[in-house]
Design brief:
This protein is an alpha/beta fold and 368 residues long. Helix content is 46%, strand content 15%.
C-alpha cells in the first residue's frame, strides 16, 4: 500500500496556510498534475468586491512553503490593489512552481486551466512574472475565466503597457506632492528591472525629460534598452543603483522585497515608486522610509494599470477606456499622500485603510 501520510514539507505548507498574519484568505487550492509536472497554488484572499482577479506567477521557488507564502501575500495584495483601483473584483493569485524555461508546456498550462475552471469563476487569472499573453491563450482553451489574452484570442494583449503607464502616473503624483510640480523633467530616476514593465516605464520617463539610470540581472534586457536609448546609463546591480548620487526616484520593477533593512538605509532617492509587487520586505519598513524622509508610493496603488487593463478585457476591451481609468492612479496616489499626512501615518498604512474601508463597505452592503 502506498504511504499517503503527509510529509514534513506538506505539514510546513499547511502551517503556512493557517497563519493568521497572512490575512485570513477565503480559499487556498493546492494543485498537482503528475503527467504534466504541474504543481501550483491558487490563493483567493477576498471576494467581497466580486470575483478574485490576479495573475499567475511561474517561478522556481526554493520550497513549496515559500511558494504558498508568496501566493498568500500576492493574493492579499491583489485585494487591496483592486479595491483602490475601483474595480469590482476581489483579490487572488496563483503560482506555478518550477523553472518556466524548463517546465512550461502546453500540457501543463492546459492542466492549470482545468484547475482554475474548477473554481467556477471565483478566481479569474491573467499574466504575471514568468507567464505571457501566449500562455493565457492556452489556459483559456480550458478556462473561460482567463484574461490577459492576445487580441487574436479575443483579449487585450500585453498588460505591461498600462502597468508602466500607471507607475508613471504614481511618479507624477509623487513629484507633485514633494516638489509641487508633476513633471519629471530634470529628475534622475533609477529603474531596477527593465523587463516587461520596466522598459515601457523608461520610455515614459525619457519622454517627460527625466534622466534615467537602469539595472537588471538579465544582460539582454539591459542591451535592449541601451540599444534604443543610448542616453540611458546602466549600473552593475541594484546596490549600485540605490547608492547612485543625485537620484530623485528609485523604481523597483523586478521581484518583491526590494525595500529591506539593508536597502532602505542606503537609499539616496527622495521617492520610491515602482512596479514590483510587495516591495516592503516586512512590516515596519514603511516607517523606516518615513523616518528617513523618503516618500513611498504604495506599490499596489501605482502598479494597478495592468489589472485595470485585464479587468476591462472581461467586458470587451477598449484601450482608451482602460487608459482613462489608469490615469486616475495619479489622483488616487495624491489622495493617499493627503490621507497619510492628515492621519500622521505612512502612505502604505493610509492606502491599506482606504482599501479596507472599501472592502468593509462592500461586505456591509451584502449583509443588508
Amino acid at each position: 500500500m502506498t504511504d499517503v501520510r503527509p510529509t514534513a514539507d506538506d505539514l510546513g505548507v499547511l502551517s503556512t496556510l493557517f497563519r493568521s498574519e497572512q490575512g485570513g484568505h477565503e480559499q487556498v487550492v493546492l494543485c498537482q498534475d503528475r503527467e504534466s509536472g504541474l504543481k501550483a497554488v491558487i490563493a483567493i484572499h477576498s471576494t467581497a468586491l466580486g470575483p478574485a482577479l490576479g495573475g499567475t506567477r511561474f517561478h522556481a521557488y526554493a520550497s513549496d512553503e515559500e511558494a504558498v507564502l508568496d501566493a498568500l501575500n500576492l493574493a492579499r495584495g491583489m485585494s487591496y490593489k483592486n479595491a483602490l483601483a475601483g474595480l469590482d473584483h476581489g483579490g487572488g493569485k496563483a503560482v506555478i512552481i518550477g523553472d518556466p524555461d524548463v517546465l512550461k508546456s502546453e500540457e501543463l498550462l492546459l492542466a492549470y486551466g482545468r484547475f482554475v475552471a474548477s473554481l467556477g469563476g471565483r478566481y479569474v487569472t491573467a499574466c504575471d512574472v514568468g507567464t505571457y499573453v501566449a500562455d493565457m491563450d492556452v489556459v483559456a482553451r480550458e478556462c473561460r475565466w482567463t484574461t490577459g489574452r492576445s487580441p487574436e484570442g479575443g483579449g487585450a494583449g500585453d498588460s505591461s503597457v498600462l502597468t508602466a503607464f500607471g507607475v508613471f502616473q504614481g511618479m507624477r503624483a509623487s513629484a507633485q506632492h514633494l516638489w509641487g510640480d508633476p513633471t519629471l523633467r530634470g529628475r534622475k530616476v533609477g529603474v531596477a528591472g527593465v523587463g516587461k514593465v520596466g522598459h515601457h516605464l523608461v520610455e515614459h520617463l525619457l519622454q517627460d525629460g527625466a534622466e534615467v539610470v537602469i539595472t537588471d540581472v538579465r544582460q539582454e534586457s539591459l542591451d535592449r534598452v541601451l540599444a534604443k536609448h543610448p542616453q540611458v546609463t546602466a549600473v552593475a546591480d541594484t546596490e549600485a543603483l540605490i547608492r547612485t548620487q543625485g537620484l530623485d526616484i528609485y523604481a523597483p520593477c523586478a521581484l518583491g522585497g526590494a525595500l529591506d533593512d539593508d536597502s532602505v538605509p542606503a537609499l539616496t532617492a527622495r521617492v520610491v515608486c515602482g512596479a514590483a509587487n510587495n516591495q516592503l520586505a516586512h512590516p515596519g519598513v514603511e516607517k523606516d522610509l518615513a523616518d528617513r524622509g523618503i516618500l513611498y508610493a504604495p506599490d499596489y496603488v501605482v502598479n494597478a494599470g495592468g489589472v485595470i487593463q485585464v479587468a476591462d478585457e472581461l467586458h470587451g476591451f477598449d484601450f482608451a477606456r482602460a487608459k482613462a481609468k489608469a490615469t486616475k492612479i495619479f489622483d488616487t496616489t495624491l489622495a493617499i499622500f493627503d490621507r497619510a499626512k492628515a492621519d500622521g501615518i505612512p502612505p502604505a498604512a493610509a492606502a491599506d485603510r482606504l482599501a479596507e474601508q472599501r472592502m468593509a463597505e462592500a461586505r456591509a452592503r451584502r449583509a443588508v
